[in-house]
Amino acid sequence: MSCKYQSNALDIPLEVEQLPTITEHSPASLIAFPFEESFPMKCEATGNPGPEFRWTKNGEDFDPYQDPRLITLDDSGTFIIPNNGNLTEFQGNYRCFATNKLGTAMSEEIEFIVPNVPKFPKEITEPIEVMEGQSVILECNPPKGIPPLQIYWMTMSLQHIEQDERVSMGLNGNLYFSNAIKTDSRRDYCCFAAFPRIRTIVQKNAMSSVSKHLLDFTNSLLERKPSLLTPTGKESHTYLVKGEDLQLECIAEGFPTPEVEWVKIGFHKLPERAVVESHGKLLTVEMVNEEDEGKYMCRAKNPHGEVVHYFYVTVEEPPEFEIEPQSQLVTIGADVVIKCVVKGNPQPSVAWRVNGQPLNGKHSLFLQCQHHDYELMQSCFVVFNGAMLITVSPDIQPLILTENNLRYMAVEGKGAVMHCKVFSSPASTEGRERFSVHKNGSLEIQNLMKEDMGEYSCFAQNTEGKVAIAATLEVKGKRNRYSYPPRDLRVLAGTTIQFSCQAEFDPSIGDDFEILWEKDGMALNGSENARYMLDDGVLEIIDVSFGDQGFYVCVARTPVDQDMAVAQLSVVDVPDPPEDVIHSEHNGRSVKLQWIPGDDHNSSITEFVIEFEESQHEPGSWKEMMRVPGNHHSAQLKLHSHVDYRFRVYAINEVGRGRPSQATERYKTPASAPDKNPENIKIEGHLPHEMDINWEPLSPIEHNGPGLEYKVSYRRQGNGEDWKEHMVKRHSFLVKNTPTFVLYEIKIQAKNHMGWGPDPKIITAYSGEDFPSAAPEDVAVDVMNNTMMQVKWAHVHKDKLNGHLGGYRISYWRLRSLLDSKKTHGDKHTLTFSGERNHAVVTGLRPFSEYSLIVMAFNSRGNGPGSHPVSFKTPEGVPGEVAAFSVTSIQKHKVTLTWSPPVDANGVIIGYILQYQLINDTEEQGSLMSLNISADSNKLHLQYLEALSKYKFYLRCCTQMGCGPAVSEERTTVPEASNWKISDALNSSMTFHIIEGLEPGTEYTVRLMTKSWVDNSSIFEDVIRTSAKGISNQGWFIGLMCAIALLTLIVLIACFVNRNKGGKYSVKEKEDLHPDLESPGINDDTFCEYSDNDEKPLKSSQHSLNGDLKGGDSGDSMVDYGDEDAHFHEDGSFIGEYSGRKDRVSMEIKGNNQSTA
User: Fold this and answer.
1) What is the DSSP string of 1036-1048?
2) Closest CA to 141 of 116, 175, 166
3) Predicted structure pTM score
4) pLDDT by residue (tens digit) across 1147-1156?
5) Beta-carbon-side half-sphere exposure of residue 609 (alpha carbons within 13 Å)
6) Contact 704, 616 (CB under 8 A)
7) 613: which residues sit within 8 A by CB, 6+ positions away?
8) Which of 161, 237, 864, 1138 has its CA at 20 to 30 Å from residue 881's CA atom?
């Protein structure tokens, strides 16, 4: 250890005379590496007067200024040795001395080392021949060189020798085999010694080791208990200096391979810092201390015994100062005591020097300083050199070294320091106004306030005089602080990011505020990098790359204050491709793949994916082989035979998949017999006397060699037949002439030119199926209700199924409604029921009907014969909705309702139920009235209704099982009549009538009525408004329009007659389409034979309202003004309307009280 010159040197300004102090020198060892251009031998010192330098080499004077090959520097003790290729003569131990009139300072000794290039000696090594199971030691004996030394064992192709519990390298560099095996035999074991400090790697000549196998010996004779290859003996001693690393090694031989374990005697476990490495053979403890001393034991054991070795570890402590000598400044005549107390293990010795000359002394030194002593350089040597300074100075006036009238600015709430550096002898006394004063004379004020502003003075005085300086302090209002500091970012490479930095400051500072950005200590403001954009406290980086990673500092600065905020930018990306991907340990169909991971780009690799490509079947196509965890860098690969492989690896992290590595060299596995037989064998019988065998073929990579074929073997089960065998190259085979649905045994075996695959598994399957040959018997039907019945049957015997039973199918159809005596064959319905069952429920039947059904069995071939048909009848049900329900002949107090029976009567109709009630627009309803109607009725005149009221009518049809759903209609009765004008009777063949004498712009109600109807029902009614007076109201205009219309009609009739000349249909057909309302011969329901006792609607009117007019019928017929709801009013007016307009007309009449004509 040494006393640092600067640590205990006095702070004496150079303006004062003082002895030299060494400030810089070269390290204790200076190695002349061959790749360096020069080697500086440094020696720098300060002092007043300036020191002169001299050197010694190997204890003798050495003058670098006299050797022209050396480069010297002015006012410096440093000289430079150039690397001119001849450095050996400069090798040696150097020491520098700095001297002035007051004394001498001496540097530590510097050793200049010129290393030699290490080389292995040239030697011829004989092959080492051992019996399999014996131990082997391959010695390295590396040459000496500049440490550290690194040793590697590799082959001539630079493949590392794999090490494990059996094979390991010792600390001395030797390669140890606990027991040799046949695969250890090779002729290219090479030891490489690397010296990284001189950038040199040397190689020893290759060594051979041959392991022989004796057929006459068994493993039991080779097995033996362990013995130690290193270290030798029962115990050994190890001495270390505190802070060094402890390494203990035990390598044993024996068979089976011994296991090594470590124990510290007297302790339950090893020290916490102890690490066991090299497969248990090396114990390491870093930076040992006193607690690591003691007795350690290694034990090597196998089933035949054990061997132990004891290590006695001693930790020595280097010399250390307990009381370090301190430099002192004293006056003439003062007594000086210099203490030097040291400790160590073993106890160190102490020696003293004065100005480089030996001085007798012990741990402490007593001096009496005289006037002529001035300054002394004392050195305390404790193994290494130490130094302190004793200065004997005459009395001088104090000297203030700080500049006068300095101006300080600070921020309120922070602290301020005003400097006042003083030197004097004897020591001066200092006066201060207030606050805390440091030993160096500085005045510190904490938590500044506005009232602290002003001028301050520093005074220094001693017996020789007094001096002072002044300083001004200005206090600003607020200190800088960040309102929005930048935040740490973790981004994907190639993106654009922004750091935002906003700060607050004292407004009185004005424009002297600035925000600066730094990255890793380098200023970014004014950077020439175009990707860095700075604007108003925002730093934007475009296209972020990994070079942009680091710490970004935002500095908010004013002339009196600054604040900093730091943010870290981390850039992530997919991993780089793995490097140095190689395959080794080739063992036929097994190889070991190794790689070095690429950069993970700040996102840990989660897994590696190994891909392969083969050149024979799918060249250029890479397929995934396996995945390994991200902390594994090798994998053992199981390969197929007769495949030429290449491999590559890519890594995956949280960002995504990286690019794949470079492909390895090809490795072709030898051919072999198939490893497996075909799988997924399927047997299908498409025809009754065939059996189609199909299987999933082996993939090309599973062929394992050329000439792949399949042997198909089959035989009937249980009758003792021999296997029938066929060799095929395809992956299917058809067996013909088989009995129907017979159980066979089948096996398929793969074969190539190298041999047969493994014994195949036998599977069983049936030959082809045929249709079932029998129908189910004892079919019975149980009708459950009017829409559902249950069917039961007896199973078809399995011998008649001719295959695997798929289930049963029920086919049924409707013969007739029980209301109809005529039978018809309705649509057939089929239901399928899978599996073994003998009953089923059929739903969705129609009530009051007769049905027939059959039951049949089915298999994969199809349906068998059907059973004998069984007929059954369903009971009555509730009827469906009434058909053609309409409300007609709407009058003041009565309406006429007509309907037709339901399409689905579902039984014998026993009557109808009519319900009706008053309703209005607010959904309020009156009481519900009901009427029962006989079954043979289809019309009803409902009376005693309220005039101008809205009614809702509901009609239901009923059987013995109940009533069906209701149909409904809404109608509004008409108001009371007043001031009606009636025209003359019109011919029934007319299609229009002109009413004259109407007032322009007036609303009228118009009705068309039959003259002879005593109930005055109308068949048409509409509300019209005449136009205002204009040209369209003039008689001449109306006459002109009528003439044009008549002319157009004549032209159309002529065209129509010409087109139909010769007649397309008979006059009778035309008469049937257009019956004359006034002609005789129409049936009893016609208009001409109407009577009060038979209030049926006109046939011709109903015909037109139902939309049965053909395309050639006149569009002006009276029936075009009505629909199925047309009716006659009691006064004979015709008020039938177009469908959809009745409600609107009725509402207009209800709200209009004016007279109509």
Assistant:
1) HHHHHHHHHHHHH
2) 175
3) 0.40
4) 332 333 333 3
5) 14
6) no
7) 619, 620, 621, 622, 623, 645, 646, 648, 663
8) 1138
